[in-house]
Amino acid sequence: MQYALAQAPLKAKKFGSGAKPQFPKEEQHLFDEICEKRWHGYTVSCSQIQAKLRQLVSKHRFRASTGWLYRFLHRHKLTLRACTTAINKVNSRMQGHNDEEKGHSFFQDVKRIVQTHNIVCMWNMDETPLYLDMPMKNTIETKGKRCIP
User: Fold this and answer.
1) Phi, psi of 18 (to 5 degrees)
2) 44: closest CA among 145, 117, 141?
């Protein structure tokens, strides 16, 4: 072992060297929360991780920068992966159609539901957008996992 260390380049990093996490308890809590969400099949984005840590350490002035994010992922053996299966069930008959056709199909579906359930009066109380076919394509997952649901 001493021979291997003696032969290592002078600028080589030693195991366990480098800056330690500034908030180890909060990072562990965040890691546990990510694992739980992934176990239940939810996607986890980078921005969600950064926002959650900012919330956990709100009394400190912590930026949760992109650099911090990638070091956090490396420390916990996590990586950003593309999902291999559809996360949200999208209306399969509308895959590949343009927005105008999707909008027309949506209104046809609403008209059919109104007629089926004999709805006489319908109110729209907000202007919240509804994305019909935008499931997240990437999620955080442990390194080495083959299938990313």
Assistant:
1) 105, 170
2) 141
Domain regions of the chain by residue span: 19-86+135-142, 92-132
CB neighbour class for 20 (10 Å; exposed up to 12, middle 13-18, buried from 19): exposed
What pTM was estimated for this model as a whole?
0.55
- Please write the tens of the pLDDT for every residue from 43-55: 888 889 999 998 8
CA separation for the pair 108, 76 (Å, rounded): 48
pLDDT band at 64, cuts 50/70/90?
A: confident
What topology does CATH give the domain 19-86+135-142?
Arc Repressor Mutant, subunit A (1.10.10)
**pLDDT 10s digits, 70-116:** 889 998 899 888 876 543 334 444 555 677 777 788 788 888 888 88
Q: Residues near 102 by Cβ (< 8 Å), separated by ≥ 6?
A: 94, 132, 133
